Amino acid sequence: MVSRFLYLIITITLITSCNLNRKDKEITKIAATVKNIEKPKLSNSIEPTKMKNLDIDYCMGRFDPKTHLDFVAIPLKYADREGMYMRADAYASFEKMYSEAAKEGIKFQIRSAARNFNYQKGIWERKWTGATKLSDGTDVSKDISEPVNKALKILEYSSMPGTSRHHWGTDIDLNAFNNEYFEKGEGKKLYDWLVKNGSTYGFCQPYTQKGPQRPDGYNEEKWHWSYQPISQEITEYAEQNMKNEMITDFLGAETAVEIDVVNKYILGINHGCRH
Ligand SMILES: [Zn+2]
Asked: In this predicted structure, what is the pLDDT of residue 108?
């Protein structure tokens, strides 16, 4: 009786281990197949997410980031002042990037984040009326008379209301608003780190050096970084849905059609931020 029982136990154990072996083999086979599947387009594990509630009002910044459910307030630890907002998904990735960079002695500081239509209208109109001079000292209201030229001068570094990537909550300006800062010392270290590692966290630089690769759009901005898993989708949405005629309701808006702001500026970005 006992030996029969033992025989049964041994048989069951053998069958089970055989099955396990087979399962193990299957798992190894599946793992090998998974390994061979092409990696997502982004150079990291972050894949573009399908955004909910993407419409023209969102794309053009006609909402308040303070009350929008997808946005969070940026803690002072990461910013130069309180009261800035960005998308929660972009923020979560920024936080991870911040702590990784901090291990190498690099400290990011957000200088600007989400700006809605009205905020951008304030920036644009202060420049248009000469209340604020441009960074090179130009007073657009006195130094330039022709409206299209006035707009083109402001467009070197600032967006028309309704066309800024800062509307989207995906884009941030880091540390300093001048390219020279990022060309030596601390700034260079920070910029080189971003160029090398930013994509791991989904961040890309939309306004790279202008030239054959990027003939149109804003001048180079080494401080402006974009959370591509979301902004790529909004860029595609803008390409399909934005028309120059929609760009209205601020001083100088009548120049948008002639300048072709949608194609030259909204879409005039580094191709690396689109693929
Ligand atoms: Zn910016």
From this structure: 98
Q: Is the pLDDT of residue 92 over 60?
A: yes
* Spacing, Cα 32 to ligand 1 middle (Å): 43
Measure 225 CA to ligand 1 centroid, in angstroms.
Answer: 7
Instruction: Compute how many other C-beta atoms are within 10 angstroms of the C-beta atom of residue 157.
Output: 17
> Measured in angstroms, how far is the CA atom of residue 162 from the centroid of ligand 1?
14
Ligand 1 (ion): residues with CB under 5 Å are: 173, 224
Distance CA 176, CA 210 (A): 20
96 pLDDT above the threshold of 60: yes
Q: Are 245 and 262 in contact (CB under 8 A)?
A: no
Q: What residue ranges do the domains of the chain occupy?
A: 1-37, 56-273
Cα of 135 from ligand 1 centre, angstroms: 14
CATH class of the domain comprising 56-273? alpha beta
Spatial contact of 270 and 204, defined as CB atoms under 8 Å apart: yes
The pair of three-digit structure tokens given for residue 175, joined into one six-digit string: 């540390």
What mean pLDDT is predicted for residues 142-154? 98
